[in-house]
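User: I've been trying to design a sequence by hand for this structure and keep getting stuck. Would you show me what you'd pick, starting by listing the structure so we're on the same page?

Assistant: Good idea, let's start from the same input. This is the structure you sent:
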């Protein structure tokens, strides 16, 4: 297998999800930084050639250019048999969690963070209040989905944990509080050496 290259940015929770999965799977890779705040046309030509929309993350692997964090996570899990990808039950759990994250808590948290970014575009009146209400509902679902286990995949973190960690680790940036269960889970995730490395993968 050829070398793996992950393109991303430190402000992208989606890129962080993939960086964490690569670390937890023990896959050697290098990271390249793309300035997501710069105009698209100013981004590296080598990156744009493989990601026409100019979005991160982008994972180069075996001549493939893989995009969309959820799709990349599932590719890693199935190809390398890691993070729940080694069993049908683990993959079913991963797919369900990834779909939930993308449509629920992974939708509202990035928007709440963006609403507080200095220099960002103003949000329509009432939008932030709606997003806060959405987060409250999503946080309650988080607790139910996590259950009594330490991680979403049981005794060890899996693909779903990587996906959900990407933005929940920044609840303070969104000026909202985690539930008690979320705070405990985040503490367990942050205690992983791989999570510490992934958090600074792009500087």
């Amino acid at each position: 297998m050829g070398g793996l290259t992950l393109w991303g940015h430190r402000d992208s929770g989606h890129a962080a999800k993939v960086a964490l999965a690569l670390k937890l799977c023990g896959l050697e890779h290098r990271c390249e930084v793309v300035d997501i705040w710069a105009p698209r046309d100013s981004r590296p030509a080598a990156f744009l050639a493989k990601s026409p929309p100019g979005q991160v993350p982008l994972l180069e692997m075996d001549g493939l250019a893989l995009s969309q964090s959820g799709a990349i996570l599932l590719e890693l899990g199935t190809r390398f048999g890691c993070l729940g990808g080694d069993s049908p039950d683990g993959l079913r759990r991963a797919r369900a969690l990834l779909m939930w994250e993308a449509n629920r808590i992974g939708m509202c948290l990035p928007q709440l963070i963006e609403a507080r970014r200095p220099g960002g575009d103003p949000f329509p009146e009432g939008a932030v209040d709606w997003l806060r209400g959405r987060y409250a509902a999503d946080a309650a679902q988080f607790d139910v989905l996590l259950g009594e286990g330490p991680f979403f995949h049981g005794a060890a973190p899996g693909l779903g944990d990587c996906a959900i960690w990407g933005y929940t680790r920044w609840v303070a940036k969104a000026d909202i509080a985690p539930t008690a269960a979320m705070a405990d889970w985040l503490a367990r995730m942050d205690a992983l050496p791989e999570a510490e490395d992934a958090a600074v993968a792009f500087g």
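That's my pick for every position. To get oriented when you compare it with your attempt: The chain has two domains: 4-82, 88-192. Residues 4-82 form a domain with the Glutaredoxin fold (CATH 3.40.30.10).
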